[in-house]
Amino acid sequence: MITEAERRAAATALMQADRERQPITQLSRTYADLEIVDAYAIQQLWAAERVAAGARLVGHKIGLTSRAMQMASQMTEPDYGFLTDDMVVNDGACLAANRYMKPRLEVELAFVLGADLHGPDLRVHDVLRATEYVVPALEVIDYRTEVPRAITDTIADNAAAAAMVVGGRVVRPMDVDVRWVAATLAKNGVIEESGVSAAVMGHPAAGIAWLGNKLAAVGEHLRAGQLLLSGSFTRPVSVEANTVIHADFGPLGSIGVSFR
């Protein structure tokens, strides 16, 4: 593990990289003793700093939900990050591509809780019972460090979360089979990716259950009203200036976002 002073220095470096759009050296190289517990502590310091600056925590994102991504990161489970209100973007927005370093988009479902969820031992049915509605979403991911990255780099870097777009049709979780929500992602009119939500741990609500159980281990829980990104069911698609994105979720509607 690293010291508290090193954790704070790492968080400061990541925040500066985000502000200046200039990636830093991987924390795993700067701090040889960096462990996963340190990485989550750095992430929390970053979240606290954003709140102190006026942002409001609105939920969490879950990453590395596919087996392929876990193997690539040498992990056996997902990771998670925080979401603040200034990270949430409306459907149809036009974003400045130079706000990010190397932005990419992922197709996801967002769960909005109507009741608190306390782990441990949460399961899919617990999540569905507590969920008020599910809505299509796109996540903008970005790296604030150089690559290649260790899993500790990704976690400390807020699990690569940069922004999210919500839109389409709001549905109650029992009104559709959430496992079989499918989507295509088109970039400038060309379909680049497609997938089905069952690719997220067999059921996207399984990711939410995992997160609730993970937070219980550190004395936290999921709260009513929180917005929870359950994990991508497509590969990430790179975006740049002069890009128009259209994600079609079939019966659940579509999301559009562009980059200038």
TrEMBL record:
Keyword annotations of the record: Lyase
Gene3D superfamilies assigned to the protein according to its UniProt record, in alphabetical order: Fumarylacetoacetase-like, C-terminal domain
Record carries keyword NADP: no
Transmembrane segments: none
UniProt keyword Lyase, yes or no: yes
Superkingdom, taxonomy of origin: Bacteria
Ranges where the Fumarylacetoacetase-like C-terminal domain occurs: 68-254
Protein name in the entry: 2-oxo-hepta-3-ene-1,7-dioate hydratase
Taxonomic placement: Bacteria, Bacillati, Actinomycetota, Actinomycetes, Kitasatosporales
